[in-house]
Design goal:
about 90 residues, mainly alpha, 5 helices, elongated
Length: about 90
């Protein structure tokens, strides 16, 4: 269930219709609702495709985790490696 005030605010500030604003809010909330482990695996695989090596990837992922709306707890390189490789 969405907050009607939020839908109204997003619609008013962007010029989107209320149904489109509601869909955008749903998409954004779903993006940030991704579990930390899934986010780490997804980002690791994505960054690996660009030729980055694990030390660079883990530094990048750690920075990204700190900047999420509801930030994850700090994870060491070892913890990140465990998430990726099991």
């Amino acid at each position: 269930m969405q907050n009607a005030d939020l839908v109204t605010q997003v619609a008013a500030s962007t010029g989107l219709s209320a149904p489109v604003a509601a869909r955008v809010i749903t998409d954004v909330v779903a993006y940030y609702d991704e579990p930390v482990e899934d986010f780490v695996r997804r980002r690791h695989a994505h960054l690996k495709t660009y030729g980055m090596r694990n030390p660079e990837i883990f530094a990048q992922i750690s920075a990204e985790l700190r900047s999420r709306v509801v930030s994850a707890p700090p994870l060491s390189d070892r913890q990140l490696r465990r998430v990726v490789y099991g």
